[in-house]
Design a protein that fits this description.
By secondary structure, this protein is of the alpha/beta class. It has 14 helices and 14 strands. Helix 1 (7-23) packs parallel to helix 13 and helix 3 (49-58) runs parallel beside helix 4 (70-79). It starts with 6 loop residues before the first helix and ends with a helix.
Length: 372
């Protein structure tokens, strides 16, 4: 018996295990790193968006229960077959960042951006993913995995691609090859991941203006290389340089690792930055007794601290709360959907319409073909 669980939680956990056994190979449970431990303990695979996308694409299970948020389950539905059923334990589990870029806003901005930046739409050429010629100057759209399926469809149909925090640099190189030397990338919805990745690639900040829907550009669009959508993660924007400075005062030899969704001042002041999987691997490599501050979601940080008792590990912001939408996936919801699956239902099924699946699949398949 897990003594960290209450009697009620233990009963739920045991029932989930019983239901898993009944469903056998027909069931696959995917869990994101930001989930609470009482969910993680039931996951067949624990990972970041990129790894879980791959697992969904490779799976033969009939039922894929995605313990994450809505856009992740949508991507799983796009990458799996029509016979497979993707289930989200709580349909209210969304993403505030993804909501900051809607199809209406992107479509409204697209023609205006093309005109103001003096760029061409890749949709106007026969092969939308062909390498650019010297005279080409296209605007290639790149959407972060943290976006709705209809935006992935828009990107796919305009010769663009999806990225995750673990492969963003490789994806941007792919996009630049198709935009041309005088072209640019429209990156949405997270401005910080786009800016941090571009900065790591040697692109100056003045060549990465920010576009805010309803307001326009902050910076010069003509000659820019990455046009950043004004979106952000409400959790990661809380990690700041003053918090790093405070940690270094307390631990002069301390190490700071953060997620690239953090502001550029935070990332630049850290010792390392990367995806959730990168952070896990980075912490594991540190020496016995290392003092480490981590700038990402608290559930993952607490799990890493428990996994590495030989190191001092703390969250960069000690007052930070869990990702509120990830936290909507409660074990009781997981138990409920498994009960209903056993009873012959398809509860909380995520179904992306076929027309939206088509373009989204193009964009996701391009992402899966790109090396990190």
């Amino acid at each position: 018996m897990d003594t960290t669980l209450s009697p009620e939680e233990q009963a739920i956990a045991e029932r989930i295990d019983e239901l898993r056994e009944q469903l056998g190979d027909e069931l696959l449970i995917l869990g994101h790193h930001y989930q609470r431990d009482s969910i993680v303990m039931h996951a067949d695979f624990l990972g970041d968006s990129f790894m879980l996308s791959q697992k969904a694409a490779e799976s033969k299970a009939k039922y894929i229960v995605f313990c994450g948020v809505h856009f992740m389950a949508e991507s799983a539905d796009i990458l799996t077959t029509d016979e497979q059923i993707v289930v989200l334990p709580n349909l209210r589990a969304g993403c505030s960042m993804a909501d900051m870029a809607t199809l209406v806003d992107v479509e409204s901005a697209w023609d205006e951006l093309l005109l103001e930046a003096g760029l061409d739409d890749p949709i106007h050429r026969e092969d939308t993913t062909a390498l650019a010629s010297p005279d080409d100057k296209f605007l290639v759209p790149v959407t972060y995995m943290n976006s709705s399926a209809d935006l992935k469809d828009f990107v796919g149909r305009h010769g663009g691609i999806v990225c995750t925090s673990s492969n963003a640099q490789g994806v941007l190189n792919w996009a630049f090859d198709r935009a041309g030397e005088n072209g640019a990338v429209l990156f949405f919805p997270d401005q910080h991941l786009g800016r941090n990745t571009g900065n790591a690639m040697g692109i100056s900040l003045d060549l990465m203006p920010t576009w805010t829907p309803g307001i326009g550009a902050m910076g010069e669009l003509k000659g820019s290389r990455i046009i950043l959508w004004h979106g952000f993660c409400s959790v990661h924007k809380r990690f700041t340089k003053p918090l790093i400075d405070d940690f270094r005062l307390r631990y002069p030899d301390g190490i700071v690792v953060v997620h690239p969704e953090c502001p550029i001042e935070t990332v630049s002041s850290s010792d390392a930055n990367g995806s959730t999987q990168f952070i896990r691997d980075f912490v594991a490599k540190q020496a016995h007794g290392a003092e480490i501050a981590i700038g990402t979601e608290i559930n993952m940080v607490a799990r890493l601290a428990a996994e590495h008792p030989d190191k001092h590990i703390e969250c960069l912001d000690t007052e930070i709360c869990p990702c509120s939408t990830m936290y909507m996936i409660h074990p009781a919801y997981l138990m409920d959907v498994l009960e209903r699956i056993v009873d012959g239902e398809n509860p909380n099924q995520i179904q992306v319409p076929p027309l939206i699946q088509e373009g989204s699949l193009w964009a996701l398949e391009r992402m899966l073909s790109v090396k990190k």
